[in-house]
Specification:
This protein is an alpha/beta fold and about 80 residues long. The protein has three helices and five strands.
């Protein structure tokens, strides 16, 4: 599920509803991964990077590829 900036006010409620479901959550909202989302997209050095919240992925019982994790900044 991609969470747009338009839904920024509802992020916490949305993440609470999806927390234990096997659904990947992705957003470009600042601090998304730190707030409990799985993958947060960030711009750094004129590139799109991503942060992964491993706790959120484990809670949803999802396994992420080691190749994906090598490219990400891990947030726990």
């Amino acid at each position: 599920v991609f969470v747009s900036r338009a839904a920024q006010d509802q992020v916490k409620a949305l993440l609470a509803k999806l927390a234990r479901l096997p659904i990947v959550t992705v957003s470009d909202i600042d601090g998304f991964a730190e707030a409990g989302g799985m993958i947060g997209l960030v711009e750094a050095e004129q590139r799109i990077r991503f942060r992964i919240n491993l706790s959120a992925a484990r809670q949803a019982r999802l396994k992420l590829s080691s190749q994906l994790l090598k490219l990400a900044t891990i947030v726990d």
